[in-house]
């Protein structure tokens, strides 16, 4: 079940409640008022599809692997020529 955040219009206290989507709280336990609660929009987690930071890191890793492979080949070639 989802978690909802409510704010009382009278006493301005925030309340958290877990209930189904069809239910709605109206009673404030703090000030004993009916119909004083309003839903507060919750923070929403956003995931970006075009992650530029991840692309930069992936490019750096790819370049480092290529550079390492070239260095291995160069060292291997030098050792072969020296023998």
Q: Describe it for me?
A:
By secondary structure, the protein is α+β, with helices and mostly antiparallel strands. It folds into two domains: 3-40, no CATH class; 47-83. The protein is 37% helix and 23% strand. It is built from one helix and five strands. The chain has one helix at 52-82; strands at 3-8, 14-18, 27-28, 33-34, 37-40. The protein has a three-stranded antiparallel sheet, with no helix packed on it. A two-stranded antiparallel ribbon has the order 3-4. The radius of gyration is 30 Å and the shape is rod-shaped. The protein starts with a strand and ends with a helix. The mean pLDDT is 83.
Distance between the termini: 72 Å
Structural class, by secondary structure, is alpha+beta
Spatial shape = rod-shaped
How many distinct beta strands? Answer: 5
Unreliable residue runs: none
User: How much of the polypeptide forms β-strand, as a percent range?
Assistant: 15-25%
Q: Spell the H/E element sequence.
A: EEEEEH
Biggest sheet details: 3 strands, antiparallel
**Radius of gyration, whole Å:** 30 Å
Put simply, the count of helices is 1
Residue share in helices? 25-40%
The mean pLDDT is 83
Summary?
By secondary structure, the protein is an alpha+beta fold. It is built from one helix and five strands; from the N terminus they run E-E-E-E-E-H.
Spell out the key features of this protein:
single chain, 83 residues, alpha+beta, 2 domains, three-stranded antiparallel beta sheet, two-stranded antiparallel ribbon, 23% strand
């Amino acid at each position: 079940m989802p978690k909802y955040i409510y704010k009382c219009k009278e006493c301005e206290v925030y309340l958290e409640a877990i209930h189904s989507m069809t239910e709605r709280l109206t009673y404030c336990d703090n000030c004993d008022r009916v119909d004083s609660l309003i839903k507060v929009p919750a923070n929403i987690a956003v995931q970006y599809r075009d992650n530029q930071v991840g692309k930069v890191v992936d490019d750096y890793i790819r370049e480092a692997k290529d550079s390492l492979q070239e260095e291995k080949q160069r060292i291997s070639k030098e050792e072969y020529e020296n023998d």
